[in-house]
Amino acid sequence: MHSTNLLLEEPVRMASILEPSKPSFFPAMTKIVGTLGPKSRSVEIISSCLEAGMSVARFDFSWGDAEFHQETLENLRAAIKKSKKLCAVMLDTGGPELQVVNKSEHPISLQADSLVVLTPDQDKEATPNLLPINFSGLSKSVKNGDTIFIGQYLFTGSETTSVWLEVREVKGEDVVCLIKNSATLAGPLYTLHVSQIRIDLPTLTDKDKKVISSWAVRNKIDILSLSYTRHAEDVRHAREFLSKLGDLNQTQIFAKIENVEGMGNFDEILGEADGIILSRGNLGIDLPPEKVFLFQKAAVHKCNMAGKPAVVTRVVDSMTDNLRPTRAEATDVANAVLDGSDAILLGAETLRGLYPVETISTVGKICAEAEKVYNQDVYFKRAVKYVGEPMTHLESIASSAVRAAIKVKASVIICFTSSGRAARLIAKYRPTMPVLSVVIPRLKTNQLRWTFSGAFQARQSLIVRGIFPILADPRHPAESTNAADESVLKVALDHGKTAGVIKPHDRVVVFQKVGDSSVVKIIELEN
């Protein structure tokens, strides 16, 4: 059976369904972003998460202080050394997120068909009839009949921990709402989301800038997740801010699309950002449920054609409290892979979930199974057609490398790169085999000191589907010289052999620069 993104071969495929999944050094080509928090911050748990397949660690600054996150990051570094697994660091900004403040932290029970008042007076205590919020402009933004959603932080949409409100009256700065379902809110903070209403707050808040200027600079973060990105200008503003902060001029910016305003400006945002995160939690509130999958498919396709990573969130919410996902969630993960997603982002599931390691392992296994039936041939032709002619020199060679690797049934593609761009272009054409990206550091100076680039570029590729980076010895140039060539190629081949993806008599496709040209060569290995 053939379809656009799915390739099934009968009866071989039916028989293989009954076979157990085989463990491998690379759990899946699709990457997994894990949010580190109270249930996933010890060295032991983080090490297990890395072993299970997490390649990007997300630090969410919409809660917790810098000291808490710093301790978690130190544990991550220890876990990386222990497990010998590379991991990128993503900082997720709070952005203009509206929150209900419950200073007492006592559970609040809200009853359906009762009235509750939302007030900007944060000195008042939260009760079933009064909820203080962190935004004074809500009364100017909403009108009668508007829908407001309040839920436990990183809410799952469960009717017992989240509540729908309907605006009934605006009284000065207060907003009177009708409670649509009974729920109990627990904890100090709950997210508040107003459906399809523009909130007049900056995307990069003063609090975000303070965190970036201190914590992010100190820790040289690899990726900034820009929450509530609504315009391309938001990304430009963030990039300008990062450019003045030393090494953070190398930090990539991923635009987090969370509402209809961001959706409306998606093409312009994609042009400016280094990648896209589809925040399906908030999108699922702003959009009717039957429209969410349409936006996901359209957005992921646009990212694929642009060669920029697409990250999908909120896939296995039930694993926050359960050891197995629902059947619908398992299918959702597989469909995200078949749509072309580069990575799956786990939030509550790993941050406060009971089974962070099992969740990562389960999602990785589902991704690996979906990748086996991904219709690469159809995708490749679509990508080539979209790019059109004439292709750039580098894109032409990159796509040729993928086609050659598939034709000769190569076990891996080895790519020498210094910026990471060549490896990302190869990954854009979704090869069916891993891309071992050998990142060659470059020596550079700011006239005060000499430094090597390369570490950022290596870690940033950990969110791109199919790329597995190796940071090479800086004495090896990215361009071809016979002695250096043989040495660095041997390092890559040895890594592939250790990982179990390269075996005797395998064919390997090598992509590298020779002078001003890029070349592809096919190597057949001996014993």
UniProtKB/TrEMBL annotation:
<keyword id="KW-0670">Pyruvate</keyword>
<dbReference type="InterPro" id="IPR015793">
    <property type="entry name" value="Pyrv_Knase_brl"/>
</dbReference>
<dbReference type="InterPro" id="IPR011037">
    <property type="entry name" value="Pyrv_Knase-like_insert_dom_sf"/>
</dbReference>
<keyword id="KW-0067">ATP-binding</keyword>
<keyword id="KW-0479">Metal-binding</keyword>
<feature type="domain" description="Pyruvate kinase barrel">
    <location>
        <begin position="30"/>
        <end position="360"/>
    </location>
</feature>
<dbReference type="InterPro" id="IPR015813">
    <property type="entry name" value="Pyrv/PenolPyrv_kinase-like_dom"/>
</dbReference>
<comment type="similarity">
    <text>Belongs to the pyruvate kinase family.</text>
</comment>
<feature type="domain" description="Pyruvate kinase C-terminal">
    <location>
        <begin position="395"/>
        <end position="515"/>
    </location>
</feature>
<keyword id="KW-0418">Kinase</keyword>
<comment type="pathway">
    <text>Carbohydrate degradation; glycolysis; pyruvate from D-glyceraldehyde 3-phosphate: step 5/5.</text>
</comment>
<protein>
    <recommendedName>
        <fullName>Pyruvate kinase</fullName>
        <ecNumber>2.7.1.40</ecNumber>
    </recommendedName>
</protein>
<dbReference type="InterPro" id="IPR001697">
    <property type="entry name" value="Pyr_Knase"/>
</dbReference>
<dbReference type="InterPro" id="IPR015806">
    <property type="entry name" value="Pyrv_Knase_insert_dom_sf"/>
</dbReference>
<keyword id="KW-0547">Nucleotide-binding</keyword>
<dbReference type="Pfam" id="PF00224">
    <property type="entry name" value="PK"/>
</dbReference>
<dbReference type="InterPro" id="IPR015795">
    <property type="entry name" value="Pyrv_Knase_C"/>
</dbReference>
<keyword id="KW-0460">Magnesium</keyword>
<dbReference type="InterPro" id="IPR040442">
    <property type="entry name" value="Pyrv_kinase-like_dom_sf"/>
</dbReference>
<dbReference type="Pfam" id="PF02887">
    <property type="entry name" value="PK_C"/>
</dbReference>
<dbReference type="InterPro" id="IPR036918">
    <property type="entry name" value="Pyrv_Knase_C_sf"/>
</dbReference>
<keyword id="KW-0808">Transferase</keyword>
<keyword id="KW-0324">Glycolysis</keyword>
